[in-house]
Write a structure and sequence with these properties.
The chain is mainly beta. The strands form 17 sheets. Strands 3, 7, 8, 11, 12 and 13 form a six-stranded mixed beta sheet that branches. Strands 1, 2, 4, 9 and 10 form a five-stranded mixed beta sheet that branches. Strands 31, 32, 34, 35 and 36 form a five-stranded antiparallel beta sheet that branches.
């Protein structure tokens, strides 16, 4: 049967009575519990609410076993109970918790108030705490047992007040079915042993007892509970009796049943390798040398031969191994030192005599006597104690811890990182790690080990880190260390503001965003060409159509780079210039075909409408208008309007439709004019050759007259012929502006005729440009 601690909790409800006389009570006044369990004691007390118009309040409470009512010894400072007690008071109702109950005792309660002279009161009725023990009583009256040749056994206990519950009886260590009363009748000459217990308290079952005479089948352990100091030697002893000589006997640990071939069949503990070196037994004596902490367990004895086997389920001997520790009974913490009352403590009390020795910073402290010590400690000081040559771990007056990093130079994402909380090393020191992330108000608790280990640290782990160390003398906190996890750019995003329609003249902001540490550097691209800007934002102030294009950005730091996706910037603007083109010409003859096309530079593409002067109707809603078999009624001014929601522009063209005869008359007149001009030029040339030169006369005359009068009549004219698609000739004759100049004393008229080469009857001289005919005409003065 494996040994497990059980807890018995008895709650004694109390009621506070204020304004009454001094008094109190603890209920119930008796508590029965098994050894090793936990019990709770409750007491309430009363006192006058005021005395001499002053409020009465409780200043101190004491639980005690030793001492007098008026001079009690605080149980909290008793070495036998130290570390196993917890006291708590609320509203004049106090409770005491005793863990690992070991012995019976009467516990009393006392409280002290502030008035009149620290007056105190002890509750008269304390709490009697009893450790349960059972015993089988065998009747010895000869005449009583002879009458029916049977004996009536009775189960007795140390507790007189029991709740109603059934009993359990054992025969040769095994349970007897349906035996649940306090009495049990057996055969007078039985050679078996019997044990008993209350149901629910099987761990406290009585030792087996023979009914008729010894020897009988039984195993009786010398001690149910044994406390041993770590490193010492322990003998666990049992006495076993039988009616035969048993050939097979050994010790076993019920908690090792998982190591047995068959879990229900015990095996010799000394056969296991880890116990073979320091465990041995001879008969009913099990010896453990250099006992270790993990030797704490329940040990049981078994014997058998061919005719009998002891299969007891009764508890064996429970061994508790304790080490030595320095415990703090009281501590007064000042800014630079601590005044401490210390105790050299063991979890249980071994039976062998103790000798204590104290050391301060590794040097024997001669002023200390016994298990208690009062000493001044400064940060970094440590104390140890020795009990029977077993030394305790050091207890430090802690210094402020320091956080160190395994790689402080560069913390890169994905790499391991170890944070160490450096302080005075002690087994009693408790560690705790905290971190606080940026923009967070909460402290996050991470762990309770001296080191905080990241096998692959993440960027989300960036934060301030610190640790605390704590022991019975106080708590210290380190300075915070900033962990800034660096990493290559993970992404690069391009944002455009405004994000929808971009109009000409607006401010456009392009932002390159990247998740990187350290912060990324940026490179901008337009149509795959690097731009000079290097900042995170790229501004297009008063954007123009030529600024349109495909933009992207690149984010880079020393760990890597990443490119953003491309964004096309489309600049929208109003139609800038409306242009009307007419084909073949804006002057057409009746019945011909003509097309007019309106175009403009706009984004988005413009919509077009045509209007005619003095006509409110919309002529067309397309960019082009085509007239076939045009009539004179189509003549007039036409207006084109281009618009796209951003603005508009317009243009006007004059369309002239002429009838056929008019065109012929114009053609004839043009031919006549051309012939006359040519003849005049010929006559002028002939006369010039025949006239003698008289430059001086001309000069003098020019000087006297202020220049030749004929200059006022000098005329330039330009005649242009254009080629129509069908070969018809159109003319456009315009007088040239008058110009004055002096070439010797002559007056000259110039005329220039341009022809497309199709004017019949005109033949240019060889080598001359067919499109230009020049002639000069001498004009005579009257």
């Amino acid at each position: 049967m494996s040994f497990k601690k059980r807890f018995v909790v008895l709650l004694l409800n109390v009621q506070v009575v204020l304004g009454a006389d001094w008094g109190g009570n603890c209920t119930p006044t008796e508590i029965c519990a098994e050894a090793g369990t936990t019990v709770n004691l409750h007491c309430y007390f009363t006192y006058p609410a005021t005395q001499n118009e002053r409020e009465t309040r409780v200043e101190k409470t004491v639980w005690f076993i030793k001492g007098q009512n008026n001079d009690p010894e605080d149980l909290m400072l008793d070495p036998d109970y130290f570390g196993r007690l917890r006291s708590d008071c609320h509203n004049d109702n106090c409770s005491l918790t005793i863990a690992d109950l070991r012995q019976s005792a009467v516990v009393k309660f006392r409280f002290t108030t502030n008035y009149p002279r620290k007056e105190a009161y002890t509750i008269k009725t304390g709490v009697e705490v009893s450790v349960i023990a059972f015993e089988v009583k065998v009747p010895t009256n000869y005449y009583t047992v002879q009458r029916n040749y049977r004996k009536d056994l009775k189960c007795l206990s140390t507790c007189s007040h029991w709740p109603d519950s059934s009993y359990i009886w054992y025969k040769n260590g095994e349970g007897i079915p349906n035996a649940n009363s306090q009495d049990y009748s057996v055969d007078l000459y039985s050679k078996d042993s019997y044990s008993c217990a209350k149901k629910g308290h099987e761990r406290a079952a009585s030792p087996p007892k023979c009914v008729y005479t010894s020897p009988c089948h039984k195993v009786v352990y010398e001690k149910r509970h044994i406390c041993a100091l770590k490193g010492s030697r322990v003998d666990i002893i049992c006495k076993y009796d039988g009616t035969y000589s048993y050939s097979h006997k050994f010790w076993f640990r019920p908690d090792r049943s998982h190591m047995w071939k068959t879990p229900s069949i015990p095996e010799d503990i000394t056969l296991e390798p880890q116990y073979k070196s320091h465990l041995s037994y001879v008969g009913g004596v099990l010896t453990i040398k250099n006992v270790k902490m993990n030797d704490s367990a329940q040990y049981c004895f078994k014997f058998q031969d061919n005719s009998f086997e002891w299969k007891s389920i009764l508890p064996g001997s429970i061994l508790t191994v304790t080490d030595v520790k320095v415990r703090v009974m009281k501590a007064k913490v000042e800014s630079s030192y601590i005044l401490a009352q210390l105790l050299c403590y063991t979890h249980c009390r071994p039976e062998q005599p103790f000798s204590f020795e104290w050391q301060l910073n590794g040097v024997k402290y001669v002023a200390a006597v016994g298990s208690k010590l009062e000493v001044y400690l400064y940060p970094g000081d440590y104390v140890t104690c020795t009990a029977n040559d077993v030394e305790s771990p050091p207890l430090y007056a802690l210094r402020r811890p320091l956080v160190t990093l395994s790689n402080a130079a560069e913390i890169l994402e994905g790499r391991p990182l170890i944070l160490t909380c450096n302080t005075d090393v002690s087994a009693s020191t408790k560690y705790r790690w905290y971190r606080k992330k940026r923009h967070s108000d909460d402290d996050e608790v991470l762990g309770e080990d001296p080191q905080l280990v990241y096998n692959s640290i993440k960027s989300s782990d960036s934060a301030e880190y610190w640790c605390t160390v704590e022991n019975e003398l106080g708590k210290k906190t380190s300075e915070a260390v900033l962990i800034d996890v660096q990493y290559a750019p993970r992404s690069s995003s391009l944002f455009v503001n405004p994000s929808h329609v971009i109009k000409e003249g607006r401010l456009v902001t392009l932002t390159c965003s990247s998740d990187a540490n350290p912060a990324a550097r940026y490179i901008w691209y337009k149509d795959n060409q690097i731009l000079p800007q290097k900042s995170q934002k790229h501004y297009l102030r008063s954007i123009r159509p030529e600024d349109a294009g495909t933009f992207s950005c690149q984010s880079e730091n020393k760990y890597g780079l990443v490119n953003s996706s491309s964004v096309f910037i489309d600049v929208q603007y109003a139609p800038k210039v409306c242009v009307i083109s007419v084909g073949p010409s804006s002057e057409v003859r009746k019945g011909a075909s003509v097309s007019m096309n309106c175009s403009s530079d706009a984004n988005p593409e413009a919509n077009y409408k045509w209007f005619k002067t003095n006509d409110d109707l919309n002529v067309a809603s397309e960019s082009s208008i085509t007239f076939t078999n045009i009539q004179t009624s189509a003549s007039g001014e036409y207006h084109c309007v281009a618009s796209n929601g951003r603005g508009r522009c317009n243009a006007t063209v004059l369309l002239q439709v002429e009838t056929g005869p008019m065109m012929v008359a114009a053609y004839g007149s043009l031919v006549a004019v051309v012939v006359l001009v040519v003849l005049a030029l010929a006559v002028f040339l002939v006369l010039r050759k025949k006239r003698p030169s008289n430059r001086e006369t001309a000069d003098s005359k020019a000087q006297s007259d202020g220049g030749p009068d004929c200059l006022e009549d000098l005329v330039y004219s330009k005649v242009s012929f254009t080629k129509s698609p069908d070969g018809a000739i159109y003319s456009n004759v315009t007088p040239a502006p008058r110009k004055r100049f002096v070439e010797e004393v002559d007056c000259v008229e110039y005329a220039m005729v341009k022809s497309d080469g199709r004017v019949s009857g005109l033949k240019p001289e060889e080598g001359a440009d067919v499109r230009e005919l020049y002639s000069t005409v001498q004009k005579h003065h009257n």
